[in-house]
Design a protein that fits this description.
Layout: H1 2-10, E1 22-23, E2 39-41, E3 44-46, E4 48-49, E5 51-54, E6 57-60, H2 66-86, H3 92-108, H4 119-137
C-alpha cells in the first residue's frame, strides 16, 4: 500500500490521508478475522470500513449497494416531501421538472452499477419512482400509479 501512496505522490497528485477510506471487498463466506486491523497511509492509520463512498456512490464490502440505495431513497423522499409541500402552487409541468431535477437525476446517477441487484433493493427504487409519480399526478399514497407510468 505504501508503494501505491509513493507512486501517487510521484505523479504529483494530492492524497488526503485524513479522508482516505479502505474497503476490503470479499465474499460473504470469508472470515472477518482475516482482515487487517489498520493500514498506514502517509501519516495516518486507516482502519478497513464496511462501506466507502466514491464519486457519490456508497460501496459496501459485499457489493450489494443496499446502503447506496438507502441513501438515494432517503434523499429522494426528503426532496419529494419538500416538493409536496409547495405542490399546490405549481403547475404539473413545473412539478415534473423539479422531480426530475432533484429526484430522478439522483436515481439515474451511476445506475449502471445497480445492474443485477436483489429484488428487494430494486423494489425500493421502484417505490421511490412510484412516489415521484404520485407527487406529479397529485395522487394519495393509496392510489395506484402504475397505469400512469411509461413502460
Amino acid at each position: 500500500m505504501e508503494r501505491c501512496v509513493i507512486s501517487i505522490r510521484q505523479w504529483m497528485l494530492k492524497l488526503n490521508d485524513d479522508k482516505t477510506e479502505i474497503l476490503i471487498i470479499r465474499p460473504k463466506s470469508a472470515h472477518q478475522h482475516l482482515l487487517p486491523e489498520s493500514v498506514r497511509i502517509g501519516n495516518t492509520n486507516v482502519t478497513p470500513n464496511t462501506h466507502a463512498r466514491n464519486l457519490g456512490v456508497t460501496f459496501d464490502c459485499n457489493m450489494s449497494f443496499e446502503r447506496h440505495v438507502t441513501n438515494i431513497s432517503r434523499t429522494a423522499y426528503y426532496h419529494l416531501h419538500s416538493i409536496g409541500r409547495i405542490r399546490r402552487y405549481l403547475e404539473q409541468g413545473h412539478t415534473k421538472q423539479l422531480v426530475h431535477a432533484l429526484v430522478i437525476s439522483c436515481i439515474d446517477c451511476c445506475n449502471s452499477l445497480l445492474n443485477g441487484l436483489s429484488v428487494a433493493v430494486v423494489e425500493k427504487l421502484q417505490r421511490v419512482k412510484n412516489a415521484c409519480a404520485r407527487v406529479i399526478l397529485i395522487r394519495s399514497k393509496r392510489n395506484h400509479v402504475t397505469p400512469h407510468m411509461p413502460p
